[in-house]
Amino acid sequence: MFKTISLEKKLLLVAGTLSLLFIGLSTSYFLYVRNNVIEQRRCALEPRITFIGSIITGYYQQYLDRELSLVQAQQQAIDEIHQINQVDENYTFVFNDDYLLLESVNNAKMLNKNVKEDRDIKGVKLYQLLYNEAVYRKNDGYSHYFYRLNTDGTEQQKISYSQYFSPWGWIYGEGVYINDVDESILNILTSN
Q1: What region, left, alpha or beta, does residue 123 occupy, with left being phi > 0 and alpha being psi -120 to 50 degrees?
Q2: Which of 1, 2, 37, 115 gives the lowest tally of CB atoms within 10 Å of its CB?
Q3: What does pTM read for this prediction?
């Protein structure tokens, strides 16, 4: 049967097969790179949040040493975290056991309001998920959910890492948007 096919059709068949192979290999490579970048960014969250924890602990110590009142120590901790968010364009959030949102650049309109019932597009109660991960560490503090982008308000998949500071009842964490990862990979691949 292959002998009866014209040379032109054979070449088209070979070209089509090679194209499909190229597309398959490119897709596999993209997914491989994407998974590695997501894992790298996910792992980078933990040390950044540990650093935020050291800031909170430092102000807590100043409170214990009677250098600051409780209100002053907590406010200065929030102010410093807010400054880090502004300068480094981080997504660090802080809320307390009562689900009062204390810091968030992505959800600034909800600051000092109760966020316990906030849900993502899949119906997941975001802050309850973050609370459970921080306090009970079921997934070592990592959470997967959808969250609004600052730029246009659309909800995108996000991975966050959160910790719990029990003396103040604070949950704090940071996340990375998956679409940020995809955009950076596409920029790398298309710039070469």
Answers
A1: left
A2: 1
A3: 0.78
pLDDT at residue 38, as a whole number: 78
Write the Ramachandran bin of 93: left for phi over 0, alpha for psi from -120 to 50, otherwise beta.
Answer: beta
Domain spans of the chain, in order of start: 24-52+89-191
pLDDT in tens, 16-31: 888 888 888 877 877 7
| Position with higher pLDDT, 143 vs 190 | 143
Which of these, 153, 152, 151, 134, lies nearest to 142 by C-alpha position?
Answer: 134
pLDDT at site 21? 85
2 has pLDDT over 60: no
Burial per residue of 139-176, b for 16 or more beta-carbon CB atoms within 10 angstroms, e otherwise:
eebbbebbbbeeeeeeebbbbbbbbbbeebebbbbbbb
Domain boundaries 24-52+89-191, CATH class: alpha beta
Q: Where are the alpha helices (DSSP H) in 89-125?
A: none
d(CA 186, CA 57): 39
